[in-house]
Amino acid sequence: MDQENDALGLDQPLKLGRVLKIPKITDDLLFENNRGLPQIRNNYPKLLKAIRKNDAKCAERVLKQRLSKLAAHQAKVATEVDNLQKVLLFYQLWCHGLFPRATFKDCLRILRNHKSLPLKEYRRGLINNEIRRLKIEKGIIVEEPENGEPGDDDHDDEEDLYAPANIENGEGRNDPGAQQQSMENSNTADSDDEDWGFLSTNRLRRNGLFIGEDEDDDQVDDSTPAHIEPAGQRREEATAETDDFPGDDDFDEPFISAQEKENVPEEDYDEELAIMREMGM
Description:
The chain is an all-alpha fold. Among the domains are: about 25-115; about 155-190 and about 195-205, no CATH class. The protein is about 55% helix and about 0% strand. The protein is built from eleven helices and no strands. The protein has helices at about 1-5, 25-30, 35-65, 70-100, 105-115, 115-140, 160-170, 175-190, 230-245, 260-265, 270-280.
């Protein structure tokens, strides 16, 4: 009776088949060093070396055997086919390491359907690096140091950048030779490109706004003996030079020559001084 009622097989145990897991690709898997895209970058130079070696053998064979034009063309085509087979085998092995149980066709389909922003940025970075490398090889741009930042100049050496830090730490304070050398470096480190001089912390910026700042730039010929003047005469000349410098109020007054200044009588400032004292100035 039970067998007749079990004609549909409802009481029999179900036989579960084998469940196949669909492989999924993620950004972590693509950027993994052992299985992802970095492995292609690390091993691709070996493939290029094998291709160049194969091309060199083909060229040597054509020159050595003096093949005809048709035979040389056939040899070149055979070499290119061999190179394409090497490239195909290279990517087959990589896909097998990425998805061991998937076929090469399925692996290509999974890779094509995967879209992510980090992958696009990674691809754009590789393209930009390759373009930069080609520009450097052709001399279009100049290669910058690895640790340098954009805008750094070559004339800003380590001494100019780190000399103030050493002085703050106490190094070089009591060493007159080191101080003299740092001053010489600061005077000789100026170059034609002064737009980037603010990057150097050891060099004083001179913009021509302060009185007497350009006197140090005048170069003196050491071959000619210097004439030593008396101290009193030098003091009088220094006071005379400071009197000749224009003040803040001189720019509002009309220009007066030196001869006219000699003819102007001296004014009495007692009245003005009394007025200023009354005003509390």
